[in-house]
Amino acid sequence: MSDTDLRPRIKARTRTQRPQLHKVILVNDDYTPREFVVVVLKAEFRMNESQAYRVMLTAHQRGVCVVAVFARDIAETKATRATDMARSQGYPLLFTTEPEE
Ligand code: TYC
């Protein structure tokens, strides 16, 4: 008789590879007006007034606040655009990015 073992081997694991997400972080400073921070958050991150106000206030009180998470290139583009929007008005407002754990 054949001794070929036809039992299934250990089941293969299928794991979908998802791109790592990156956080966009709003950094507090002493010079940018609160209202301007809110305007930038609404314009670049599609937030409404109360969402934007809460994020601005958290950064103001704690030093930084996570604005949102995106795929890396989108996070970097939005952080750059938002920071440039502030530079064009002469404000030191800064958005940075960092990979999510
Ligand atoms: N700290 C600023 C002020 O008192 C307001 C501000 C909030 C600036 C959040 C940057 O990320 C920021 N005018």
From TrEMBL:
One of its GO biological process terms is: proteolysis
So which domain of life are we looking at? Bacteria
Describe the location of the Adaptor protein ClpS core domain by residue ranges: 18-96
Q: Transmembrane region positions?
A: none
Q: Which InterPro entries match?
A: ClpS (IPR022935), ClpS_core (IPR003769), Ribosomal_bL12_C/ClpS-like (IPR014719)
Q: Which UniProt keywords apply?
A: Hydrolase, Protease
Entry GO MF terms: peptidase activity
User: What HAMAP family does the database record attribute to this sequence?
Assistant: ClpS
Q: Which PANTHER family match?
A: ATP-DEPENDENT CLP PROTEASE ADAPTER PROTEIN CLPS (PTHR33473:SF19), ATP-DEPENDENT CLP PROTEASE ADAPTER PROTEIN CLPS1, CHLOROPLASTIC (PTHR33473)
Q: How the protein assembles, per its UniProt entry?
A: Binds to the N-terminal domain of the chaperone ClpA.
Q: Per the similarity annotation, which family is this?
A: Belongs to the ClpS family.
Q: What is the purpose of this protein? A: Involved in the modulation of the specificity of the ClpAP-mediated ATP-dependent protein degradation.
Tell me the protein's name: ATP-dependent Clp protease adapter protein ClpS
Please name the source species.
Answer: Labrys neptuniae
